[in-house]
Amino acid sequence: MTQAVPVYRVRSQQVWDLARDDYLAGEPARIVCRRYDLGLSAFRIRARKAGWRRQDQDDPDLYDPALALEAVEDVAFSDMAASARRRLQLALMDGEATEAQRWLKIFETLSVLAAEAGDVHPLHPDFALPPSDRDDA
Questions:
Q1: Virtual CA dihedral for 36, 100, 128, 110, nearest 10 degrees?
Q2: Is residue 3 in a domain?
Q3: Within a 13 Å sphere around the CA of 128, how many CA atoms are in the beta-carbon half?
Q4: Same domain for 73 and 24
């Protein structure tokens, strides 16, 4: 049996600068690495050597949660369940079992809420068509 040779990817300084900016802006390292096709261990080594520390960044502006809630639009439970399922899939692809378990529980809960509201997600066993697709006259 032959072993696969590890692939060594060289990224430009511009890619590393973009990754650093996103990381220091608050993005998780795992997401930044996926976005820029970087190895997580290489990213962490570079961040440590270059001193990329979030604690050295300025505090973000404080916001009023009540104002933020006013801007939030209502989203159907089935749409939230679909989003949770995508997060579950990403966590599984990254080998994050604990995070995947959390997203699975969220997906199951949202699917139940969608069923109770009559807006069942297609992946839920009690699938029902969304109101826009029904032939109710």
A1: -110
A2: no
A3: 17
A4: no
End-to-end CA distance of the chain: 63
Structural domain span for residue 118: 64-137
Q: Using alpha carbons only, give the angle 120, 75, 108 rounded to the nearest 5 degrees.
A: 45
Please indicate, yes or no, whether residues 43 and 98 belong to a single structural domain of this protein: no
- CB-CB contact of 30 with 47 (8 Å): no
Q: What is the pTM of this model?
A: 0.48
Instruction: Tell me which amino acid residue 90 is.
Output: L
Residue of 8, 129, 7 lying closest to 76 (CA atoms): 129
Amino acid, res. 62: L
Average pLDDT over residues 62-91: 81
Residue 128 tokens, joined: 């029902």
In this prediction, residues 104-112 reach a mean pLDDT of 92
Mean pLDDT of 76-91: 89
81 contacts 114 by C-beta, under 8 angstroms? yes
